[in-house]
Amino acid sequence: MKKILLLTCLFLSSISYGQRTKFKKLPKAIVKVSPQNLVRSGLKVGAEFFNERHRFSNEVMFEIISKNNNVFDNDEGLGKLKTSGFLIDYGFRYYLDGLSIKKTLVSEKVGGYYMGFGVQAGSYTETHGLIHERTFKYSQLEVTSTMYNMAVTGGFIKEVASRVYLDLFFGVGMQSGSNKLSESDVSKETVEVMVNSGTLSPYARGVIPRIGFKIGVGI
User: Fold this and answer.
1) What DSSP character marks residue 163?
2) Is residue 52 part of a domain?
3) Which residues 6+ apart lie within 8 Å of 206 measured at CB?
4) Percent of the chain having pLDDT more than 70?
5) CA angle (128, 38, 214) in 5-degree steps
6) What is the residue range of 193's domain?
7) What is the DSSP letter of 32?
8) pLDDT of residue 174
9) Which of 169, 168, 166 is nearest to 218 (CA)?
10) DSSP string covering 52-63
11) pLDDT beyond 90 at 131
């Protein structure tokens, strides 16, 4: 009798588990936002679109950068006054085992590991207030960077809540571009001191790491 009750309980549990699997669906796309880009006053949003078998995907992201640094305590109007820009990313991903439903005893979550490549291009402008060393004349200098890069990346996507996904990625890329000045009598050294050329900056050149995360909602 005990064996029959045990088998019955196991059978009913398997039916319930199978019903949960039946209604769990893989997303056709994930709408994403990149919180780390807020560090450079950027709003980066986009989406990743999966093929029918969820083995490949195409990701497109757009970023708008805008910040006014001319605060009230900067009466002289020196230093960085304003930043603005627009960038677009495209990435192709291959999921090693496909994006799939990971089953455990208590839940079912969507996830998968991927590798791929990406390209990025855009334009970024910083406006600086400065006083010329020779003439002591005040002017505002605009430094406009047209940049582009390519990168090889890897990472994973994991469902952290119902239809909410964490995308963690890492990789390495090569970034290049050109800078254009609104004034011709400013030295290159002066510009290099003024502009921010850190890892997240569009002014960075050469080999740069690609690491970060995105948060998304499946649709």
Assistant:
1) T
2) yes
3) 174, 175
4) 76
5) 145
6) 26-218
7) E
8) 93
9) 166
10) TTSSEEEEEEEE
11) no
